[in-house]
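To assess whether the prediction recovers the assembly geometry, we first specified each molecular entity separately, as shown.
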Amino acid sequence: MSDMDLMDRILATARMRVPGVTQELLKLELFNTIDEFFRQTNAWRWETVIPLISGTQQYPMYPPNGSDMVQVMGVSYKGRPVPSVTDSGQGSVVRTRGRIIGFPDPPSYDTLFEPDVINSPGGVFSYSIFFPSYIELDIPPSADAATAPITVLMALTLNYQVLEDEANEWPLEEWMYSTFHEAWIDGLQGRMFSQVSKPWSNTQMAQYHMKRFRKFMGRAKQMAEKGYVFNKPTWRFPQWA
Amino acid sequence: MATLDTVSDYVTEARVLLQDTVVPYRYPDADLVRALNIGLQEAYRMRADLFLSALDFTIPNVTTLSDPVPMEMGYRQAFIYYMVGRAQLRDQEDTTDQRAGALLQKFAAQMLVLAS
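The predicted structure of the complete assembly is given in tokenized form:
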């Protein structure tokens, strides 16, 4: 069975359940649904190998065509997990590039912002992601360290540019359609029914389907964390708390 | 043609409801084409999604009878009602005013309400 057939199943189901809907709006809201789903659940995971270069700290990360990185789930080097900079306890990470580092004897201020200098006291190196397009190591790898690559595990979502293509050309993997079909249908219906002044506007149905969508997202997030292996769910607050 | 693909299809169908199918016409083609364009703009106000393509909105501006009118299949008929209603607004008779108003309301209802 091809991806086209699987996507057609979603679109055909939505067309029947949301009478009067237009094709382009259906595609846009399906994209929004899938994007929210992957951003909330980290359910689309992708691993890439980045060769290290001696003396180079920054490495660009290229998610697969048509996808965007949501966040890095982990980095490993020679089979061992690499700590992120935030775990090193050296200053506070700020949203822009660099870190705020405590200064023991400040001349006129008590902190110093070093945009290009990152300190790391221990470990081979640690990493940080200041912009989602590249990964930065705190210590430039030596020639010996550069003999092995790092492996980066990312959570992905769809890139908005896929909207230029037909929905059945989006770079989704076949297993996603069967695993997340009900979730995406509910999310799509919820978004459609919640629109204002449309022939298909329906507040009650919107609440019903969005509730189901959120439930599916919670489940998918747990499934992804456990590697799609059946197990006891992790503890969490009940919904009424 | 009932498929309502081109401006000519819309004008022909509107003339049937206007009872204006014999030359010389009471309602010139140019008036009906203008009414169609205004109808498209009115539809954009109520239903921008009808003009959505990827992330752009394109409102067609038709000029000749052979121009295509890109529109979702289920919403084409509504523009006939708008063209006829707008054309009849210029008539003075009281009964025509009511009919024109009803047709313009029918257009809006078809844009916004499922059972219309």
